[in-house]
Amino acid sequence: MEVRAIEDIAIGQDLTPHLRPLAAVLRDPALTSYCSACFSTLPAQPFPPSNPAFPQNPIHVPDDNPLTPLYCSLTCSSYDSPLHLSSGEAHLLQSPPSTWDDDSSDLRLSLRLLSIFQKLPKNHSFFPGFQSSMSSNQSLLVEGKKHHPFEEIDNVESPADYLLENYEFPQRIAGLMTNCEKLLAFEQNVNNPSENNENIRERIKEGANLIAKARRMCSEDDFVLGEMVLCLVLTNAVEVQVKRGISIGVAVYDTTFSWINHSCSPNASYRFLVGPEEDDDQSPLRITSSGKILNLCTEGIWKNGYGPRVVVRSIKDVKKGEEVTIAYTDLLQPKEMRQTELWSKYRFSCSCNRCDTFPTNYVDNALQISSSIILIDEEDINPDKVDKLMQSFDDAISDYLSSDDPISCCMKLENLLINAHLIEQKSPQNPKLHIFHHLFLNAYTMLASSYKVRANDLLALDYDVERRNLEAFNMHKTSIAYSLLLAGGAHHLFTFESALIATAANFWLNAGESILDFTRSPLWYSFLSPSPARMDFRSVLGKECDNCCLAINLEVEEMKRRLYNCIADLTPKVWSVLVSGSSFLKVIRNPVDFSWLTFQESCMFHDTFRSDDEECNEQVRVNLVLLGEHCLRYGSLLSSVCYGSSV
Ligand SMILES: C[S@@+](CC[C@H](N)C(=O)[O-])C[C@H]1O[C@@H](n2cnc3c(N)ncnc32)[C@H](O)[C@@H]1O
């Protein structure tokens, strides 16, 4: 199935009303901070409270079990607790699986769906033949090996039994694709033949076992049913993100959302709404599937669906009849990585415009260019050397993620970046390593965060306060320089691939917040000489920008143009100060203007640029406040296009 627009739709418009989930669960680590029913942040005194004086609450679990569902209100608790208990989820939480990625949420989501499917009245329209009015849509509900006449169905105990008795591999349950056949098959990954595709099969089998145990059911049929529903979850579930890039849960929605296919250059994005639902959403449904009813599942029991609502939104102009697509994977990954991920999770090879363009488009070239596709003729530079360098990046990033050692991470990654620069300098006519190669982007991200961690760690130490403060100040400065480089890079790529709007929005918001955070640091007063007067932030922020008036109430394109022009004007006024502590960053002339990249053969760095270290002074700080504010406004503007509001 696929989904198409029923009318011409401009960029930045909602395509659906607020859609309620069929089922949703929090990820294990989020259980202590968010309401298990509506996903809002827990109040100071959640329900049930941590002391066991709640005899009326049947789900109270001992204090030493950290995986207990908590609720923001009695209403949420009374909505969610019965399903939590009857599904067997509580059992899974009390003895969480040590395998299955150390997180029980996909399994808990499957348990909930199973419980819901099995409680449906047997004449529910989820299942073929149960409702004569649905007969024209039967094939949408369950397609499988056998086809059964209507009469046979009357004798079936429950819809789930019906599924088991009649279908070997049900392709659909409740209209949703299970993808069982592909996920459980021994099919080789066409993009990566060496991949061990036994893994996913084994994982599903193991998951089905855990599900059967949690439900205290051990027949072969229970196992098979668990397997099918787990496949449905793996195929249709989406990560529920409430803050930028932070996933707190996982949910399955009905066909209105779940029939939307993937593209690496999608024309739609989606956002989540959490908290108790206000029933005032009148937005129309502007998508359909070949004229068929999309929201088969919103009738009956699903009307009561509770939990995070999803809304689909256009991020490009969409023509009537055009297919609406979303991204199932991180679009800032190079083609090979996207293809590998889509195959291993969903078992399909993407053939969207971005993937099929030949020769590969600029963005994918930038993210991926490596020695393997370049002829190298210098004696001392060979493809092996570049490949080894790339491998070292990968290793340094994995090391950091596993060892959490920010000092060695900064040293290793910056040395590698400098090495990459040297290689490039020796062979400028052969473009090999783009400044926005995906490994470099990862390295910049790691460096932005590890310099910040180092600054905070230093402040906690008790030694020569003056030296310590200065070091911490410089670390913080370097951290925001990397945030700005990331925002500038994401923006550069976004100008070639408009589907990267959400990524660019997030990087600008991060850069803006980090810069403003830095300008508020009390460290400014500890070593600037002469010590400046306390800055009146309101007067700087309240000052209208002469060039863009902080761009409000204009056409979106005009606001974007003006804000970006201001960012481009302000950045050179602070950049040399920001990079003074990093020998790598000094070779980057301007982190928000990469127009030269597309005209030059060598795409790693502009000619080496060394500025004399410039001093931090009050004027720099004022410029930073203005720059941070413009970055925030720009990020919010892009974010309002793809999410409807800034996130
Ligand atoms: C959430 S469902 C999307 C709706 C699905 N097409 C259906 O008929 O129900 C995800 C599954 O759709 C298929 N799919 C999604 N995007 C695709 C694409 N770009 N190319 C091929 N198959 C795709 C894959 O089988 C994937 O596992």
From TrEMBL:
Q: Which domain of life is it from?
A: Eukaryota
Please name the InterPro entries in this protein's record.
Answer: SET_dom, SET_dom_sf
Read off the SUPFAM superfamilies from this record.
SET domain
Specify one Pfam family: SET
Residue ranges the record marks as coiled coil: none
Task: Report the PROSITE patterns cross-referenced here.
Answer: SET
**Domain SET, chain residue ranges per copy:** 195-329
State the protein's name: SET domain-containing protein
Native organism: Castilleja foliolosa
